Amino acid sequence: DSGVTQTPKHLITATGQRVTLRCSPRSGDLSVYWYQQSLDQGLQFLIQYYNGEERAKGNILERFSAQQFPDLHSELNLSSLELGDSALYFCASSPNPGEYYEQYFGPGTRLTVT
Amino acid sequence: AQSVAQPEDQVNVAEGNPLTVKCTYSVSGNPYLFWYVQYPNRGLQFLLKYITGDNLVKGSYGFEAEFNKSQTSFHLKKPSALVSDSALYFCAVRKVGAGSYQLTFGKGTKLSVIP
Predict the structure, then answer these.
(1) Given an 8 Å threshold on Cβ–Cβ distance, is A42 in contact with B105?
(2) Is the minimum CB–CB distance between B83 and chain A shorter than 8 Å?
(3) SS3 B85
(4) What mean pLDDT comes out for the span A90-94?
(5) Above 80 in pLDDT, residue A112?
(6) What is the β-pairing status of strands A104-105 and A87-94?
(7) Is the Cβ pair A98, B49 closer than 8 Å?
(8) Would you state the pLDDT for residue A40?
(9) What is the predicted pLDDT for the residue at A98?
(10) How far is Cα of residue B47 from the mean position of the Cα atoms in its chain?
């Protein structure tokens, strides 16, 4: 158990809908990262937050957004969902945004868009 | 840009034999390198990392990796494979001093240890 929690574990929704994925980082970690894992794209970095502020953006679609709250939990919002958004979404955390710190991953949320 | 290549989609090894999972990377400067393992229906677990110093890095569960700058490689090794090592292994890279903290992952290598 990495100490990173994600809810829900599974989510099934229809195209065009909006969902929110939630992540709680390890105790004491200030940085949160979101990744998308799909069979064709592999693991793709989406976005990073540090202590409530956005620090880095990767291959995140404009339909997707995220935020980190004062208690350091983070939410990833996915809207106007398409079939191709079906994937595993991982949250990871690290103590600070230092380059050499490893990231600790949560168990993931499996999103299925029908 | 930075990238990682894991040339083998699958590696099969007999239990008790040594295992190697290959990784090569591409960055324009010095790299930080990481190995993660993913068991079915689980998140990624950190195994080990190379930051600086000794080219041979030891990590969790008896795994080690050797950094080779001239060959831009960071192969994962274990002297004696266990059936429980069967999983998906990911190599990842981050450029030193880039100011970016995202990890770039390889496609993953499925390791199967045969009893």
Answers:
(1) yes
(2) no
(3) helix
(4) 94
(5) yes
(6) antiparallel
(7) no
(8) 82
(9) 67
(10) 8
